[in-house]
Amino acid sequence: MKKGVLVLAVLVLLLAAGYAGVQWYVDREAKKKVDQAIAQKAALGGATYKKVHVDLLDRALRVKEAEIFPSGGRAAVPIGEIVVHGYDLFGPQKTDRVHVELQRMHLDVEKNFNPAMGATLKELGYGTVDLDMVVNYASDEAAKVLDVREVSVDVDNMARLSLGARLEEWQSPQPGGDNPMAVLGTLMRVALASARLEIEDRALLAKLKDSAAKLQKNGQDSYAEARKEFQDKAGQSTDPKIAAMYKELALFLDDPKHLLITLAPQSPVSFYSLREVRDPEEIIRKLGLSVTR
């Protein structure tokens, strides 16, 4: 009995040592890849970090306590953790499936923004901007499909924006393909199958509304003007669904807390096919645009 327990204990120790050895090796190789990526992007600025770790079970690369140094001499941007999901342990990182999180990014209003934007944010009562960001998409070159699962920005005491979309007839940008007209032509052929944009206010829109109200006496209340425009369009539209959409937008401006905009065309719609449509309501119908609060 004692011999069996001893053998089991030895096996557990060997397994633990083996796992620790694999973890050390994988972390070391991941650190090399991170350093190589930083070196390749040196022209865009520099970066430092405190630790690189790979979760072996869920294949997530974690770069902890990073600092990004933008080119142009702007102040460093601290990021609590950068997480790359679906990390390839043994080969180059795939570019057709990307799921990256930037957690606890910290921006100083005076140091990290241009003077005009910084002044606007200070006027609204912000000295710093703390946010989390997620980019999650997958592309299928053979099927010509881009599935944007989530692109979101969650800013403390401001707002959260989340975008999702499915694009067909998609072609990934080719290296060196910097001809603006060629890029525009490619984008015009892309067909929108579905999309959704969700906005959750956490103080920013309310602050903007209050700021606009202060300018009302000078005839500059953009909120009031936009609200009146939506109300007028709701009254003018002969399409009940479109009238309801404009009413929802007007109500959102009255109480800007949550808004969900969805595009659900009956069949994928290319941007090229919309170029000659002059009636805004026809475009709304083609795109299957709806708005809910």
Key words describing this protein structure:
twelve-stranded antiparallel beta sheet; single chain; alpha+beta; 8 helices; 293 residues
**Principal-axes shape call:** globular
Question: Termini distance?
Answer: 68 Å
Low-confidence stretches: none
* Sheet with most strands: 12 strands, antiparallel
Q: Give the oligomeric state.
A: single chain
**What structural category arises from helix and sheet content?**
alpha+beta
What would you report as the Rg, rounded to the nearest angstrom?
25 Å
In total, the number of strands is 12
Number of H- or I-type helical stretches: 8
Query: Mean of the pLDDT scores?
Result: 83
In short:
The chain is built from eight helices and twelve strands. It has helices at 2-40, 109-112, 115-123, 180-189, 204-214, 222-236, 240-254, 280-287; strands at 45-48, 51-55, 60-70, 77-85, 97-108, 128-140, 145-155, 159-168, 191-201, 258-263, 269-270, 289-292.
Molecular structure report:
By secondary structure, the protein is an alpha+beta fold. The protein has eight helices and twelve strands. Strands 1, 2, 3, 4, 5, 6, 7, 8, 9, 10, 11 and 12 form a twelve-stranded antiparallel sheet that branches. The model has no long low-confidence stretch (mean pLDDT 83).
Describe the secondary-structure layout:
Layout: H1 2-40, E1 45-48, E2 51-55, E3 60-70, E4 77-85, E5 97-108, H2 109-112, H3 115-123, E6 128-140, E7 145-155, E8 159-168, H4 180-189, E9 191-201, H5 204-214, H6 222-236, H7 240-254, E10 258-263, E11 269-270, H8 280-287, E12 289-292
Antiparallel strand pairs: 1-3, 2-3, 3-4, 4-5, 5-6, 6-7, 7-8, 8-9, 9-10, 9-11, 10-12
Helix pairs in contact: 6-7
